[in-house]
Amino acid sequence: MKAQTFSSASVTAAMSGSMAGEPAVEQVRSERYERGAAALRKVDGETGLHVVEALAESFPEFATYLVEFPFGDIYSRPGLGLRERELAVVSALTAMGNAGPQLRVHIDAALHVGCTPEEIVEVVMQMSVYAGFPAALNGLAAVREIFVKRAIRLPLGASTSHSERIPGC
Q1: Does the N-terminal or the C-terminal CB of the chain have fewer CB atoms within 10 Å?
Q2: Sign of the Cα pseudo-torsion (50, 46, 71, 136, in order)
Q3: Which position has the higher pLDDT, 33 or 168?
């Protein structure tokens, strides 16, 4: 069965919740797509919309998959809130070490859903243990780039010593 694809105009309309003026064929969407568009809007706001629109111009079928599977199926599941999901995504993308553009989008999304700058820095630094220093350094460079764009000043605050952070050390 061939997947239904949508034009960038219909992606824009779905993300904004408006389909007025679109041809009837463009209005038919799966429940997964609608659920995914709503989740994407909550997570990424306008940034996510622009990514999907740009992708739909050249690869409409893949843009549909991007909305339906990660956002319609996974992000929409119960059990984790959007903050926790975005911290997990930032961690995973940092550990991958080869997904810089996606990492920057998800750092921005993590801030959008209420993660603190401190939480983001900490999860990226945590990846140095599991993914190595190069991956964490690249992740911190992405963090710096997004924080500069959002006027979040670095360093974030006075750090405490190891013994002050972990009781009994």
Answers
A1: N
A2: positive
A3: 33
